[in-house]
Amino acid sequence: QVQLQESGPGLVKPSQTLALTCTVSGGSITTNYDSWSWIRQPPGKGLEWIGHITYRGSTYYSPSLKSRTSISRDTSNNQFSLQLSSVTPEDTAVYYCARGVNDWGQGTQVTVSS
Predict the structure, then answer these.
(1) Residue in 84, 87, 82, 86 with CA at minimum distance from that of residue 105
(2) Residue 61 has pLDDT above 90, yes or no
(3) Gap between the Cα atoms of 18 and 83, Å rounded
(4) Fewer CB near the terminus (10 Å): N or C of the chain?
(5) What is the pLDDT of residue 32?
(6) Burial of 25 by CB count in 10 Å (0-12 exposed, 13-18 middle, 19+ buried)?
(7) Is 24 a residue whose pLDDT tops 90?
(8) Is residue 89 within 8 Å of residue 108, measured between CB atoms?
(9) Closest CA to 65 of 44, 38, 27
(10) Is 15 left (phi over 0), alpha (psi -120 to 50) or beta?
(11) Which of 44, 55, 47 is nearest to 100 (CA)?
């Protein structure tokens, strides 16, 4: 069974870069035609897809966040990462990593505040 775990700072200052890592166990990020996603949920709002990286390493981003987003992977450690630059308080959310639509991490709270 695939398990995902998000990690990274819980507090980021405005204008800085948010950086999170998702560590995957129980399956490889380079096989099975899977896509590995980042999703977030701001307080009081619905889920927002940020982007994903495929098993081949191709990346796709939400048009509204594309200019500030980068998703990469470390295949040797079976991890994939999110970088979101120039953050504002509107980027405050619970951030999730996921495989496809069925397997999700528990989520990590990120607050943007000075």
Answers:
(1) 82
(2) yes
(3) 6
(4) N
(5) 78
(6) exposed
(7) yes
(8) no
(9) 38
(10) left
(11) 55
Alpha-carbon distance of 38 to 107, in angstroms, equals 10
Q: CA 87 from chain center: how many Å?
A: 14
Report whether 50 contacts 62 (CB < 8 A).
yes
Residues 56, 93: Cα–Cα separation, whole Å: 28
Rounded CA gap, 83 and 3, in Å?
21
What is the Cα–Cα distance from 25 to 113, expressed in whole angstroms? 32
8 by Cβ neighbours in 10 Å (0-12 / 13-18 / 19+) ranks as middle
Which run of H or of E encompasses 51? strand 48-54
Residue 66 has pLDDT above 90, yes or no: yes
The 8 Å CB, 24+ separation contacts for 69-72 are 71/38
